[in-house]
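Journal club prep, notes for RB
We'll compare a predicted complex against what the paper describes. Inputs for the adenosine monophosphate case:
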Amino acid sequence: MKRFFRIIVFGATVLLCCGCVGGGGSRGSASAEGPGDFGGRESGREWQGDTADGQGDAAARQEDAVEEQDRESVRHNDAAADGDRESVRHRAAANGDRESARQYVDTAMGTVIQQTVYAPEETASAFFSESMALLTGLEQEELSWRLDTSEVWQINAAAGNKEGCSVSEDMEALLQECLELYGRSGGAFDITLGPLTRLWNIDKWAAGGADDENFRLPSAGELRDTLRLCGSDRVRLVPAASEGEEARIFLPEGMQLDLGAVGKGLALSRLSCLLEEEAGVSGAVISLGGSILTFGGKPDGSFWKVGIVNPFDTSSNVGILSLEGQWCISTSGDYERYVEADGVRYHHILDPETGYPADSDVRGVTILAKDGLLSDGLSTACFLLGPERGMELAEEYGVEVLFVLSDGSIVMSEGMKAYFTKR
Ligand code: AMP
Ligand code: MG
């Protein structure tokens, strides 16, 4: 089905809500194609950048205003067939000033990618194209558990295989970090929950939440049997024996990796490297659903502004982070992807002990870090651990954390206070 929606970016008084786009648009229902591995797809309703309505399910949002004269509309015409990248027509937000903000939007990794790039038009446009190729490649060749072209798919397909499966250097490093986080989070963060996330069918749930008529609550027996297939402590990752060889991974029969908790964060880190190589880009903010990258600066020297969504009213923020230079900001929340059935909300962050959505007294966690893999992985881990253990874990990793708790209170690390302004 052909779908169409429109994004309008307004002027200085107005927010350009990067994070909002992905969540808000898909609030109505899951799209026919279903979401990707890493977040929801747009369901095709109209979106306007300056209205709060229905956009709030984004985890964090870019709040950088563009100049009034930069008002521009970006048309996003989704003519995508299954799995195809959506086609986009975009124009730079400003044509006069060589260093004006240029806005781009497209989809990849199952979510809407929104970029504000400060660079001459040609440079900005070239960067945008390269970044989209990078994201598409990351999903298709490395991280997707759905696509048989990806490394994760190959690893999962080899579960139970005595020979295991070879892994690339990048994948080895990623898996090592994830296994370490499993240990340091006491097993709460676990990338082997593939069988469990599939039992719950969370990739079919709309980002932003919706009633899912096909939702079925798994039975206690099903959860128990499925949890037996999971557990990072049973993964064997064998480093390469010598140079030129590849590491190997051994998954027990039935185990499946799900890297949904770190995919977008890894993407932020890769994009950050790409920006460093791109000499002409002086500043950028890139939003991938619940994860945002800031880079460089704005011509006027003002801060990057990133809003943290209020889980109790996702059209508003609990506050703003004011940032300079390169940062990765990731948020995990129970409002990002969920279904409601019989008055109960079932969200997408699952407790590996019970098999049910985590009940840790937290509605949302935001991590501020230099590294995207850390910000994304730790936002999920801290959500699972709750404020006390989560705060300790964040401190161990040297990142800043902010929790919005179930009673509405906000708890944050000392270092976060320097960046956060409450609304
Ligand atoms: P995030 O939104 O970054 O917190 O990631 C949530 C995603 O991570 C879910 O959609 C699942 O794909 C996956 N996931 C769910 N529970 C866990 C868990 N306990 N540990 C690691 N990944 C998980
Ligand atoms: Mg995460």
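Talking point for the session: The two ends are 41 Å apart (CA to CA).
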